[in-house]
Amino acid sequence: MNRQIALIGAPTDIGAGTRGASMGPEALRVAGLRTALESHGLAVEDRGNLSGPTNPGLPPVYGYRHLEEAIAWNRAVHDAISLALADGRLPIMLGGDHSLAIGSISAVARHCRRVGKKLRVLWLDAHADFNTSVITPSGNIHGMPVACLCGHGPDPLTGMSDCRPAIDAAWVRQIGIRSVDQGEKRFVHEAGLEVFDMRFIDENGMRHTMEQALLGLDPDTHLHVSFDVDFLDPEIAPGVGTLVPGGPTYREAQLCMEMIADTGLLASLDVVELNPALDVRNKTAMLAVDLIESLFGKSTLMRREA
């Protein structure tokens, strides 16, 4: 795993229905993210926050809320992630809402094609985020990033990488899903996304789930994790705008992160949808930092070196 880290803040809630995710990057910093990563021997450069248009709070137009603003923010994210990867650093995008993953993963996919790496995307989320302007019930673009990355959406978002679509649906593994709109559900099945929903986790356990999600990885794989904090059960992570009961417990989430770390292949990360306005004494941000540490090698168990 790359030990050179770049933190990149994207403080916007432009794609969300609830305001507040724009404060997520600072909440993660206040929770001690940089110090936590440095305690594991990582060289961390905080590149500060990107800038972009403010949230105008307007209703949807032709099925999209704040499309032009979302395009501007995602271009900024794309360019910043591209620069960090070109500099040889592992980028951590601090959101902000999950629409920003369009820019982040478009940049990662471009990088993978340039260096000849395969890409695997782990989408840790309560939602499939596979809506389009036709089937969305809200018009919120944070419910559309996977669809846009797979080529279903407006040209400026689907064409942000060096080819369209930016990624193939077969490269994605969705974990923890438990809230999918009816039209979106049909579209997910048509696209062939591999989804490990909460029923699968309940029936098979997190260990087997992660074994399946990580199957086929090899040293030529770039592993990208897109971590929406609403992946977690609201009982332990209340600071999100879209609470969905029945998510992974603390131990299940820790096991998920530790098994990702065990691959040694993590090469880029999104942390999104943290909403301090809805949190309790920064509890969710501190939990997110704890889990991010586990992605970088912190283990709850004492293990012998192999």
Query: How confident is the prediction overall: mean pLDDT?
Result: 96
**What is the number of domains?**
1
Order of helices and strands: EHHEHEHEHHEHEHEHEH
Could you say which structural class the secondary elements and strand pairing correspond to?
A: alpha/beta
Strand order of the largest sheet: 2-1-3-8-7-4-5-6
Low-confidence runs: none
- Figure out the total of helices: 10
What is the CATH fold-level name? Arginase, Chain A
User: Care to count the β-strands?
Assistant: 8
Q: Which architecture name does CATH use?
A: 3-Layer(aba) Sandwich
Strand content: 15-25%
- Ends apart, CA distance between termini: 16 Å
Shape descriptor reads globular
Q: Profile the largest sheet.
A: 8 strands, parallel
